[in-house]
Amino acid sequence: MxxxxxxxxxxxxxxxxxxxxxxxxxxxTMEQQQVEIIRFDSALxxxxxxxxxxxxxxxxxxxxxxxxxxxxxxxxxxxxxTAYLIDALPLFIHDTLYGFDKTNTTVQxxxxxxxxxxKELTHAFTRFHYLYPELxxxxxxxxxxxxxxxxxxxxxxxxAVGLDMYLGSDYPYYNRVVHxxxxxxxxxxxxxxxVVSGYLFAVFPFAAAxxxxxxxxxxxxxxxxxxxxxxxxxxxxxxxxxxxxWQWCEQYERQIWNRMMDKRDLFKTEQxxxxxxxxxxxxxxxxxxxxxxxxxxxxxWRIAESYMNNHPELSLQDLIANHDAEQxxxxxxxxx
Length: 336
Fold this sequence. Notes:
The chain is mainly alpha-helical. The chain has helices spanning 2-20, 40-45, 52-62, 66-74, 82-93, 100-110, 115-131, 174-177, 191-203, 213-230, 235-239, 243-251, 253-262, 271-278, 295-309, 316-321, 325-332, and strands spanning 37-38, 140-143, 151-153, 159-162. Strands 1-2-4-3 form a four-stranded mixed sheet, sandwiched between helices. The chain is globular, with a radius of gyration of 22 Å.
């Protein structure tokens, strides 16, 4: 009986300690992996109406890999339809009805200097390279999308960022095209987090054998936890929350978890339930209309963090490679 009590006491101490200190995974000095940002947006916006045929063909020649993907993924146009693009791109760039002309000018002003974002991404991918030196470090293309796309993962392993989606939560034209809850992440400060998390979700796709809520929660939570170790940003920024939303989650964490347990939601697979817990929205309807969105991901992150703090022998690579959500939950000793 005494030995059992000792185990419980030791576990309690571990949990207290793990809540107070976040693990560090990287040495102080690493070989820097410079991330290149390619300003495709500037080249695109330089198209001249009277010489659009020449300029569009130049984009095909100068960006042979990216331009077709941009046309298809961001604009929804067939990449081989050169004749249509020659006519349509100048109209798109200089459109006044939807405010694209003003927005494109604002993009060039807001992002005249990308060195801060480049520094953040270089820092994050230097850490990532330390974990996975065999994986490709992406180049980052910037583009304007007509409020149609934020971050793209490209066929060649590179990434692209729609700068017109990051002009600030109070940018007036957003009122026409998005819901209020979406504006929280439409800020310059969110670019690095969106790129890094988007890259992680792309190179480490969902691989659980089952599609239960707990499998999705732990998959997304693991990715966000790893992302938080790559970036030197507050956790609420990594999550795409406001500081107040993060504090709400911390304040009601126990009640959130107890409600999920009482409803036995973890092992359900219904799509509406998964959407409520995992997708963006004004709130997490399965919990409360006061609850921030994506609470399933947030709880998954907390479980992953508890698991790693209680198992210092495990690496981030071990966490990513482990697709057994029930085992992670069990061995996390998560109990808010």
